[in-house]
Amino acid sequence: MTVTEPIPTTSIQVRGAAALQTGEPLVLGVDGELEAGTAAEFSTALAAAAGAGTGPDVLLDLGRLYHLDLTGLDAIGAAAAEFARHGRRLVLACVRPRVREFLALSGGEALVPVFPTLEEAALHM
Questions:
Q1: What span, in angstroms and rounded, lies between the C-alpha atoms of 92 and 109?
Q2: Any residues with CB less than 8 A from the CB of 4 and at least 6 apart, and which?
Q3: What's the structural domain count of the chain?
Q4: Which residues form the STAS domain (predicted)?
Q5: Count of CA atoms in the C-beta half-sphere (13 A) of 99
Q6: Do residues 96 and 65 make contact, with C-beta atoms less than 8 angstroms apart?
Q7: Alpha carbon distance 62, 118 (integer Å)
Q8: Which domain range does residue 35 map to?
Q9: pTM across the whole model
């Protein structure tokens, strides 16, 4: 079986999940490419979806994130720091192999916890 990557795009989308029960993390999916051209859009969309201030911890499903660069990683790190200031956590799950390799090489895994599945990430929140 051959795995093919999608045609590159220069867009990013943050998808929200259905309302969750109190105490459960908010699960948001990130689609596209998180890089210099989309980092500001990602930050705005994440803030709109997750809310500012208090609220549940946030679990980002990166299963449909096909590219991440240092600017995108900075945006994730800034979001994690902002959540932490409000006593919330941000974690990543379902990270594609290429993006996972970038996170490992760049030290990104030290900024934000990374889990192989949504279920495993939710257990650690």
A1: 9
A2: none
A3: 1
A4: 26-125
A5: 26
A6: yes
A7: 10
A8: 25-123
A9: 0.83
